[in-house]
Design brief:
Elements (H helix, E strand, L loop, with lengths): L3 H26 L3 H4 L7 H13 L1 E3 H8 L3 H13 L3 E5 L7 E5 L1 H21 L5 H20 L2
Antiparallel strand pairs: 1-3, 2-3
Helix pairs in contact: 3-6
Length: 153
């Protein structure tokens, strides 16, 4: 009879192998180079920060650093370039001037919509032979993964 520790160890082993095998597929199928090039012309880190800001409206530099596991000193130049491009702006917290909020601008929202459009186009290319039921299962699975990982932050 298998003990709880053995089951947990087996589950961790399986999860580790699944992550290793899915990572290249995600890169190949979803995060294709054209998402970071062509019309979008942004590194993936910029795209991810813009998407997060589009979802939450505003984030502090500390929240961005924590969410994306980017060191605070590396956030500053990233945000500076996004400000120069007109995608975001900085707002100092009136109660605590040390706290800086990054707020998405309309140009940033438009960029996110363009990127989502590119992603949809890429997904439709590789998903043409996938049944609708399986696409629903895939979106459900990704939602579950997101919620589990988000809860463990």
């Amino acid at each position: 009879m298998e003990t709880n520790n053995e089951k947990k160890r087996d589950t961790l082993e399986k999860l580790a192998w699944q992550i290793l095998t899915i990572a290249p597929l995600l890169k190949k199928r979803i995060f294709r180079p054209e998402i970071e090039q062509n019309d979008n012309a942004l590194p993936l880190s910029y795209i991810q920060v813009l998407a997060a800001l589009d979802e939450s409206e505003t984030m502090t530099v500390t929240e961005i650093s924590s969410r994306f596991d980017i060191a605070k000193p590396n956030i500053t130049p990233l945000i500076d370039r996004m400000i120069e491009a007109g995608y975001v702006k900085r707002i100092r917290n009136s109660a605590d001037r040390r706290v800086v909020h990054v707020v998405i601008q309309e140009k940033g929202r438009e960029k996110v919509r363009s990127i989502v459009g590119s992603l949809k186009g890429g997904i439709s290319k590789w998903s043409g032979n996938i049944k609708e039921h399986d696409m629903v299962r895939l979106t459900d699975a990704i939602s579950i993964i997101y919620n589990i990982l988000k809860a463990s932050e």
